[in-house]
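User: Assemble these into one structure.

Assistant: Restating your components, then the assembled model:
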Amino acid sequence: MDDDEKLVGVISLRSLIVWPDEAKVADVMDTNLITVTPSDDQEDVARLMADYNFVSIPVVVKDHLVGTITVDDIVDVIDEEAAEDYSRLAGVDVVTLEENPFKSAAKRLPWLVGLIFLGMGTASVINNFEGLVSQASILAVFISLITGTAGNAGTQSLAVSVRRLALKETSSLIKMLMTEVLIGAMIGATAGLTIFLVVWIWKANMLLGVAVGLAMGVAILVANVAGSFIPLVMDKIGVDPAVASGPFISTLSDLTSVIIYFNIAGLFISHFVSA
Amino acid sequence: MDDDEKLVGVISLRSLIVWPDEAKVADVMDTNLITVTPSDDQEDVARLMADYNFVSIPVVVKDHLVGTITVDDIVDVIDEEAAEDYSRLAGVDVVTLEENPFKSAAKRLPWLVGLIFLGMGTASVINNFEGLVSQASILAVFISLITGTAGNAGTQSLAVSVRRLALKETSSLIKMLMTEVLIGAMIGATAGLTIFLVVWIWKANMLLGVAVGLAMGVAILVANVAGSFIPLVMDKIGVDPAVASGPFISTLSDLTSVIIYFNIAGLFISHFVSA
């Protein structure tokens, strides 16, 4: 502390032990200060201490020392923040595990029931295309394959985005979006081509393969971009991206996937009307 | 160390500073040793240090000190293990983030393409019920709602199980299974009842509501138990539960859900044949 009671340096416990008896505090202290303030996010402080391998860090308000945070505190913080990110991906709170099965069910239900209403949107889209399905019931066969695969791709891209946000490894929004479009296009093309071949061989109907493969490719591209874009945008505009959970992304992707699927299938409908 | 070079006690840095000059090492050291061995799992060591708030822990082989682990090492371990659990839930490796979009796509594709083949199983189940769909195309409307909701429930229960495993909070397998059956039954009943009412009102067909609601309830129960049971059993038999990822559970649950849905719908088919 200087005369004004401001923090001017820190001394490590190790240097206290090894310094010569005649040394002054000013000689051994480190004045190259890295400090935090009481209003800093605990996750940011944890990340800072992990990155610098600090054992403790001073907390200051206007250069006055008001406390210290030690590394054993941040172990708990990192653990809890990781559990929060994990909860987000699963659509269930795993930070406070519940022993009582009734309370446990009560904690999981709001998410599920909320998503059922989003899922009803998907059902009403399929309902609008019921005429198409009654002409070609074969179309029903591939609904869950397309929605499921796009949902899986969206979950992957969500997880990568959330991880980047946690590590503060985010560059410009446009650049990240372009990268995800490219990744989505490559993954969509590969998965679409695979399913085109499988359906063509299985059903001996090349155009059905084209429709299903094309729908899957486009659905994956859209899910991939949404899974990455939604949490990044929410973070940029300062909203907690908690709502962008894995189940939310897959349920949203069900909706976009069936829109894409039935619109593409409609273009080819004359080629696979049921016998 | 004693005469035999065995570790007999530890002294904390703090007690080194505050002890009186005349005190002997034997007076200030703590002989109530908690140690680890080089073959211990790094996650277990991290959990031990976090629980006891240790700043460092001795590593011993047959009572001989071979090294120490400090708390700043375990911050990285906890961080990495959390990222691994997270990767597992998402079906993508987020421990090592990839900058190159081509490599990134290559990392995500094996999971997706593998799951497409599991999804083909679901498609072939629906294919077996195509006769049912061509009689009542309305059945196609609810496929993604049922598979999606059951998949979400399975992901929630998977996440809770994996978290319990990480925190070593696992009791007997039978007791946990019974608890998940109870939770699944409550969640399934609530979601099934919700969707029964929605479908009944929307389609003015009570029996269609019964079929869809019942199918959703049973599909959720099965997904819930599978999501919880698969990682727990894998852990009990000593297999790394890495394969029991979120996308795997949802894709597996798509398969069980359509089997349940079409079998139940088949019982009621005469009541909702298309006009």
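The CA atoms of residues 123 and 255 of chain A lie 8 Å apart.
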